[in-house]
Design a protein that fits this description.
Rossmann fold; N-terminal domain of TfIIb; 2 domains; 6 helices; about 30% helix; about 35% strand; globular; binds S-adenosylmethionine; Class I SAM-dependent methyltransferase; methyltransferase activity; transferase
Length: about 240
Amino acid sequence: MVDGYAAAAQYYDLLHTERSAARTQALLAAVGADVRHGILDLGAGTGSVLAALGAQTPDVPIIAVEPSVGMRTALYARLAAAPGLRARTTVLPETAERLALGEFADLAVCLDTSPAFPPPYRPDIWERVRNALVPGGVFLLDEPHLTEPIAQEPREFGRVAVGTHTVVGSVRGESAGQRQWWEYRYTVLDGEGEVVSVEETEFYTWPVMPEELRAELADAGFVVKDDIPYDGGQIIQARR
Ligand SMILES: C[S@@+](CC[C@H](N)C(=O)[O-])C[C@H]1O[C@@H](n2cnc3c(N)ncnc32)[C@H](O)[C@@H]1O
């Protein structure tokens, strides 16, 4: 399988931690007190979200679904440094399309990941998530930012110093039929601003209208509740 996140994984926490923390705090404030059984993290990435969830919820099992070996490397490194979290977190090296779990969780999250699900597979994925939730369990996923494919001018999304170097992340996009094409570029600069390395990764996502996503969730047996707002977006809240 092609690992679209191979280049991104090494820089992911450096460049994304701030946004990830804002979303996680918003969703913990909204539903954290309800967690009693288990947590499912679909597209867990480097584990920054699940670590924050794990730190502020009871000692319930966590299942992290993450198909990218690059991202899993960072995730396992995070677990290695946190024995308590390691003891309760099981990592499934597969895609959401292959999820087959019985009822265990009262919180399922899928952050910055659902646009990667091809539309024909989405209804089946929502059903698989519902099957993993106990009655009353909640599923949280981002409200889509992109409702149609569109050209996106290159923009810098993060810049962080690491020793004498600076890591710079930038992104650009193009429409590609019904899909959105993305290119993420990671540039490392030395103290004089000279380029040390440049790595790129590209992948596609599927834009969708938020109402369409909510309708799919309702069709899969969820009751869609009020969104959870955070600084920079909204999180859709669907209860089993
Ligand atoms: C942008 S990252 C988000 C990671 C994490 N949820 C966060 O918010 O920091 C998207 C993640 O989704 C994973 N992913 C992509 N396609 C997936 C699929 N079909 N099923 C499960 N995970 C997938 C990628 O490997 C990547 O780690």
